[in-house]
Amino acid sequence: MQNTALYTKQIKNWATELGFLFCGIAKAEFLEQEAPRLESWLKKGFHGEMQYMENHFDKRLDPRLLVDGAKSVISLGLNYYTDAQQLDSDAPRISKYAYGADYHDVIKNKLKQLLQLINEHIGEVNGRGFVDSAPVLDKAWAKKAGLGWVGKNANLLNKRSGSFFFLAELIVDLELKYDIEPTADHCGTCTRCIDACPTEAIVGPAVVDGSKCISYLTIELKNEIPVFFKDKMAGWMFGCDICQDVCPWNRFSVLHNEPAFQPPPDLLSMTKGDWDEITEDVFKKVFKSSAVKRTKFTGLKRNIDFIK
């Protein structure tokens, strides 16, 4: 038990040194409470065209099916909040998280470093890092690890830092000291996120109809955006920050200090005209290392044309 506490302290210290905002640890076990929620969400078709959400149902609920002998889920949060803004208020809008380098690459590198430190200083450990690209219910694990609570907008909220942070996991076959006190729900009677969503995608507390979410419509949806949403996109061409921008807890957000998340010089100064006339060459230059590449040039043009 003494070693377990020591290892846990070391891992949390290393996570801080690597730039993570939070680090919490939960026991690797079946997510019993999440099973009916996930099943209901899928049955209602709230995943839209994201067919991959139907795959690996069991693995989404049990990390021991992802890592042999898994004992611990290390949940991590990386801050991306910035007060930088696009200079032209009429320009198509892009979510804050996509201003800089692709967070998948940035966080995967940090997870590799953390696992390397564990192997070097604690011993040979079997583990895998995950960041928004595998069947892992990151918000459920972050909640179990005490990093915050799931708000009415279905984002993880933290009393000290709001919600502008990415979540990631390192699942390991190492027994650690678990954070066994989940954070209480502090949304209260507030409904600002529900009231502010222009597409009415938040259909209940912590339940989002993904097929109506602007982030889904501008990124995940590969077909044409339904005409129904023509005047409901609020100018967003990639992602959406509305439900976070109106959340009172985000008044506690602090500026990130991750150099990779700094926007390229051209991005924030582009005018509405620049976006309307964007070429594939400009797209490749501005977004060469950005998560915006996911939507491809044709997808971004589709979005820009749709919100004109």
TrEMBL record:
Pathway, according to UniProt? Answer: tRNA modification; tRNA-queuosine biosynthesis
Any note on cofactor binding?
Answer: Binds 2 [4Fe-4S] clusters per monomer.
Major localisation: cytoplasm
Q: Does the keyword Cell cycle apply?
A: no
Its assembly, as annotated, is:
Monomer.
**Which residues of this UniProt protein bind [4Fe-4S] cluster 2?**
C197, C213, C240, C243
- This protein's record includes keyword Protein transport: no
Residues holding [4Fe-4S] cluster 1: C187, C190, C193, C247
Q: Per the entry, which co-factors are needed?
A: [4Fe-4S] cluster; cob(II)alamin
Question: Which Pfam families does the record associate with it?
Answer: Fer4_16, QueG_DUF1730
Q: What start-end ranges are recorded for coiled-coil regions in this protein?
A: none
**What family is this?**
Belongs to the QueG family.
Q: Name one GO biological process term.
A: tRNA queuosine(34) biosynthetic process
This entry's Enzyme Commission designation comes to 1.17.99.6
**What reaction does this catalyse?**
epoxyqueuosine(34) in tRNA + AH2 = queuosine(34) in tRNA + A + H2O
Q: Binding residues for tRNA, per the UniProt record?
A: K222
One function term, GO molecular function aspect: metal ion binding
GO cellular component terms given for this protein: cytoplasm
Q: Please state what the protein is called.
A: Epoxyqueuosine reductase
Q: What's the name of its gene?
A: queG
Binding positions for cob(II)alamin per the UniProt entry: R60, D132, N153, L156, L167, S215, C240, D241
What is the annotated localization of this protein? Cytoplasm
| Free-text function comment from the UniProt entry | Catalyzes the conversion of epoxyqueuosine (oQ) to queuosine (Q), which is a hypermodified base found in the wobble positions of tRNA(Asp), tRNA(Asn), tRNA(His) and tRNA(Tyr).
Organism's domain of life?
Answer: Bacteria
Q: Which residues form the 4Fe-4S ferredoxin-type domain?
A: 176-207
Q: Enumerate the active-site residues.
A: D132
